[in-house]
Amino acid sequence: MHRKIFHIDVNSAYLSWEAAWRLQHGETLDLRDIPSIVGGDVKKRRGIVLAKSIPAKAYGIQTGETVYSAVQKCPSLISVAPQYERYVVASDSMVALIREYSPYVQRYSVDEVFLDYQGKRDPLDVAEEIRERIKTTLGFTVNIGVGENKLLAKVASDFTKPDRVHTLYREEIKRKMWPLPVEDLFMVGRRTKKKLNDRGIWTIGDLAALDRDYILHWLKKPGLTIWEYANGIENSPVKNEGPPPKSVGNSTTTAFDVETEEDALLVLLGLTETVCMRLRAHRMYTRLVNVHFRNYSFVGYGRERTLYSATDSTARIYSMVKTLFRELWEGEPLRQLGVSVGRLSPNDVTQLSFFETWDEEAVQLDRTVDQVRNKYGQTALYRSSFLDSGIHPVIGGVIAEEDYPMMASLL
DNA sequence: TCTGGGGTCCTAGGACCC
DNA sequence: TCTGGGGTCCTAGGACCC
Fold first, then answer.
1. How do residues A282-293 score in pLDDT, each as one tens digit?
2. Catalytic one of A27, A100, A112, A356
3. A200's torsion region: left (phi>0), alpha (psi -120 to 50) or beta?
4. CB < 7 A to strand B: residues 241-270, chain A
5. How far is the CA of A246 from the C1' of B9 (A)?
6. Does the pLDDT at position A352 exceed 70?
7. How confident is the model at residue A115 (pLDDT cuts 50, 70, 90)?
8. What mean pLDDT value characterizes chain A?
9. Are both A160 and A191 inside the same structural domain?
10. What's residue A407's pLDDT?
11. How far apart are alpha carbons A370 and A87 in whole angstroms?
């Protein structure tokens, strides 16, 4: 009986999926073979690089930089718009294939999956088979990292790309992981890298060699976490179901600066509608409402407030959104607005505040609007205040059935 | 900078209570 | 009271991840 953890990571996910989709729909040019990116719409001020081909990477183009800057580096660069619906289909197909190998499969993000393999076969053979099957049957490549825990598997999948299987077993830590720059470690970002470098810590091995109490007192709990990772210590299980969400939010960058309260409130209402629909789809209530924005000079602010009682009512939540926005906004032009709700709890128990009454009509209205929108489309029904406003009545990301847990700062 | 959108976790200070 | 310390809640901001 063998047991190993796999981390399966799609190479340049959005770009690979876009390329595969296009080939399967009659196009002959493979985006992966030329300098290309999946990038946001510059005219809508969403122009950043979401994914890049390997030829584009050779020009020094990086994920997250502006499309403008990417084109400066490579004038012949091809930029295509993201088509998220396609990527969800590709992702779902990959997960279905992976589930054939184990009942313990964790979808970590849209393009990353953990698998806990327990069986008679050599784990390395199994990993190679999964890699090959995804390539031949689905048309895109993945890297697979194999290790004794999720952290080692994840680090291993980041070794040379694309289309590779790598191991990082305990006995290989010293040789394969410790020489790497410290920023290659999960949870070591830009700021932590600088703090570590300032004290002469440059490699994962340097970090691993520190005294445990020294880093604990210096960088507190996050410091202890990365020190354990550097030593290969990590033991979280591959969870079949993600935990319930702790917050739900939507934000949007507007094509033009928002300059009036009227327009700002319409955008916020559109966002609140989406957030509340997702909240109800999760069968959750919220007790915390947050409004945040960035102004024309990209400076961001936020304000949040606790509600008297938990709710999923669009009217109640939007009322708080308005209050918070009016307290926060100083009248400057805005380029991005967001609404999120937190401190969620299951909606199966309703605790009425002493000061409130149960508004059955409002509850039924929300339920009915959700049903109509789910059946006939997100804009089948919308508030008349949006008419002729030029502002979309429902703003925000896909309302997926299962709303992947997009992230976890911990494995 | 021409700089997206979805999240989680941690820290820290003040309020408030015992 | 010229007041100690611990616990919890609230809010703002920062760091990190995909």
1. 999 999 999 999
2. A112
3. left
4. 245-253
5. 11
6. no
7. very high
8. 91
9. no
10. 39
11. 25
Structural domains of chain A, count? 3
Number of neighbouring beta carbons within 10 Å of residue A89 = 12
Read off the tokens for A140. 């895109």
The string of pLDDT tens digits covering residues A316-326 is 999 999 999 99
Q: What is the CATH number of the domain that holds A207?
A: 1.10.150.20
Note the pLDDT tens digit of each residue in A157-171. Answer: 999 999 999 999 999
Last residue of a domain, one of A115, A145, A177: A177
A407 touches strand C (CB under 7 A): yes
Residue A95 has pLDDT above 50, yes or no: yes
- Cα A409 from chain centroid? 11
What CA–CA distance (Å, rounded) separates A86 from A84? 5
Residue A49: give the domain boundaries. Answer: 1-177
Q: Please confirm, yes or no, whether A112 is among the known catalytic residues.
A: yes
- Count Cβ atoms within 10 A of the Cβ of residue A342 and give its class: 0-12 exposed, 13-18 middle, 19 or more buried: middle
